[in-house]
Design a protein that fits this description.
4-stranded antiparallel β-sheet, Alpha-Beta Plaits, alpha+beta, single chain, 98 residues
């Protein structure tokens, strides 16, 4: 079973894109990708909304997500989200195929 979480970060004046760029430059993205159970962590930029960034975040199971949410990186991510004054919308999908 895999769990995919789509996170839409929305800001103003390019702040969502700056957030994603800082996530990459700071090494947080690489650290998340290296976590046990992470299967995908990629940013995309919608063509029709220049103020939103989509993060596709896929995990092996709920336990991996729970471990990630307890990691020190979550504090760093929250601080960056606050720094760039972003709103967040979350969608969650479960692939139950084995």
């Amino acid at each position: 079973m895999s769990i995919t979480v789509n996170l839409y970060y929305t800001g103003q004046n390019g702040s969502a894109r700056k957030f994603a760029e800082e996530m990459v430059k700071s090494g947080i993205v690489d650290a998340v990708r290296a976590e046990e159970g992470n299967e995908r962590y990629e940013y995309f930029f919608p063509m029709d909304d220049s103020e939103t960034v989509l993060l596709i975040d896929r995990w092996k199971n709920q336990e991996a997500i729970d471990f990630h949410h307890k990691s020190p990186m979550m504090k760093q991510i929250a601080e960056l989200r606050d720094k760039y004054k972003l709103r967040l919308k979350v969608e969650r999908y479960i692939d139950e195929k084995e």
